[in-house]
Design brief:
18 strands; 21 helices; single chain; Rossmann fold; QS_regulatory_LuxO
């Protein structure tokens, strides 16, 4: 064991002697003792001999064996020792994979002295100090502690101090903007602006103005000079969401802006310079977009410096329940409801559902449940479709059906049997006719009352989708608010 007052010993496993010497010099101000192993076998021999280290800096590309093999051996001898992977740009995916197998962090080579020292300092601190200010399972705007998300957190921690561009990919709803904000918040630019621009939501003719700004009279409707996102983000971070949707003509201007840090407002000849860190995101495969001719190859290589892939919710295991619980309490407080937990059936449904819309869909499901119901515990019947996929026949119990049929006449597929209380043919006048929406509204309200407010049950009786009832109720409420 190391004595508390002694220098902390670090083992650097690096086969290039000049690089090892350079990085060792970077660490001199930290007052640590750095030993160098030039092969994987030398590193393993240190541990076999019982040598104790506070930290391992491990290159994945070694001349004799793989860094993964070294990592596995280290974990056998000292399972709790922090291991920081050192890798080149082209091996980032391998570094992320190493995080899944027990590495603590990773560095991208070549790395600057400050970044190396910050990473080593953080790795040498006790875990309780590093994570002491964060709620368990929380990381900036993220919730969850699954292995895939731990890998994401490590990439963010490593990439945040750098100015290198991060390219985030992931399915729609996985939290790409949350990820970009986390990178900004963890960086030295956190006190400066974070500006997001959605390249898919802005019309093609206006996106250049949104990005770079315009001067008065630059185009029809430009009544005053306007500051663009690039200028607003000066000193901070510019997040370009759905970057693959950007028009090819503007991509060439963006490339020049990234390369030089300079731009011109629309309609101006004056060149402005800003200091901006770029983060971009897409829900597509960016290389496929390059091959298809929708995305410039030179821009791809300029932006695709640190790729970061967000896992879909279905691959995050128990994270879905943790996220749902947090959303449930938050929405319940907002809506003044009593919800605090899920029953076992709902928990199982959350875990087994595929979540094609990811976290965004989960938010909608929890919000829907909280708004339309009230109890302390969420039950399966409260869930909206498609999670509540029980048939209408099963939902409507015999007891409910017997009470409801006294109010609502049963409908038949071929010959509809009209309620005897309706006016007979020939006695109906124009004054007796009411708008169809009003008849529909009355039938829906009767069904909801018969089911004690349970909309999925009412939908089963009416033989329509619950989402149809939710949509109509919302429409009628909005119409009422307009009239008031």
């Amino acid at each position: 064991m190391q004595e508390s007052g002694a220098k902390k010993r670090i083992l650097m496993v690096e086969d290039t002697a000049s690089v090892a010497a350079l990085y060792k010099s970077y660490l001199n101000p930290l007052d640590v003792d750095v030993e160098i192993a030039s092969t994987g076998q030398q590193a393993i021999e240190h541990f076999a001999a019982g040598h104790q280290f506070a930290l391992i800096l491990l290159d994945l590309r070694l001349p004799d064996i793989s860094g993964f093999e070294v990592l596995a051996e280290i974990r056998k001898h000292q399972p709790d020792i922090p291991v920081v992977i050192m890798t080149a740009h082209g091996s980032i995916d391998a570094a992320v994979e190493a995080l899944r197998y027990g590495a603590s962090d990773f560095l991208i080579k070549p790395c600057e002295a400050d970044l190396l020292r910050v990473t080593v300092n953080k790795a040498l601190k006790p875990k309780s100090i590093v994570d002491g200010n964060k709620p368990e399972g929380a990381y900036y705007g993220f919730i969850g502690r699954s292995v895939p998300m731990q890998a994401v957190y490590r990439v963010i921690d490593s990439a945040a101090p750098s100015k290198a561009t991060v390219f985030i990919t992931g399915e729609s709803g996985t939290g790409k903007e949350v990820c970009a904000e986390a990178i900004h918040a963890a960086s030295t630019r956190a006190k400066h602006p974070f500006v997001a621009i959605n390249c898919a939501a802005i019309p093609k003719d206006l996106i250049e103005s949104e990005l770079f700004g315009h001067v008065k009279g630059a185009f029809t409707g430009a009544a005053a000079e306007r500051e663009g996102a690039a200028e607003m983000a000066d000193g901070g971070t510019l997040f370009l969401d759905e970057i693959c949707e950007m028009d090819l003509d503007l991509q060439s201007k963006l490339l020049r802006f990234i390369q030089t840090g300079t731009f011109q407002k629309v309609g101006s000849s004056k060149v402005k310079q800003v200091d901006v860190r770029f983060i971009c995101a897409t829900n597509r495969d960016p290389w496929k977009e390059v091959v298809a001719g929708n995305f410039r190859e030179d821009l791809y290589y300029r932006l695709h410096v640190i790729p970061l892939s967000l896992p879909p919710l279905r691959e995050r295991g128990a994270d879905v329940v943790e996220i749902a619980q947090s959303l449930l309490v938050m929405f319940a407080m907002e809506e003044g409801k009593d919800f605090r937990e899920f029953n076992d059936e709902v928990t199982q449904r959350l875990l087994t559902y595929d979540w094609p819309g990811n976290v965004r869909q989960l938010q909608n499901v929890i919000r829907n449940t909280v708004v339309l119901h009230n109890a302390r515990e969420v039950t399966e019947e409260m869930l909206p479709p498609p999670l509540s996929n029980v048939s209408g026949v099963k939902i409507a119990s015999p007891f409910v059906r017997s009470n409801a049929t006294s109010t609502i006449a049963p409908a038949h597929d071929d010959n509809v049997a009209f309620n005897s209380t309706l006016p007979k043919q020939g006695s109906v006048t124009k004054a007796d006719i009411e708008p169809l929406w009003l008849t529909e509204k009355r039938a829906i309200q009767i069904a909801i009352d018969a089911c004690d407010g349970n909309i999925p049950q009412a939908a089963g009786l009416l033989e329509v989708s619950p989402s149809t009832i939710y949509r109509k109720l919302q429409s009628w409420q909005e119409s009422q608010e307009k009239r008031n």
